[in-house]
Specification:
The mean pLDDT is about 95. With about 90 residues, this protein is an all-alpha fold. It has one domain. Helix 1 crosses helix 2. The longest helix has 21 residues.
Amino acid sequence: MAIAANRIDMRVNEQVKQLAERAANALGCTVTEYLVRLIQQDAPKVLRGETEIVLSNAQFDRFAELCKQTTPPSPRIREAARRLDTEGF
């Protein structure tokens, strides 16, 4: 493991601290190593949940069908697009 250069300070109640210490001891590592391991395992799952959309086949088929349908933009949408072009967006 690389030498740590950054700190995360946190306060927890006694029960949480003891639980972390017991779990770390059971794994034969320090509380810091235990918490780092938990973060490395859990954070990617959390981030995937924020960046991925999972659809069923039926949902995807419906989405694809809707994408094929075209409706001409309304005059209000055309005017908004023209103003955005004029303003440099």
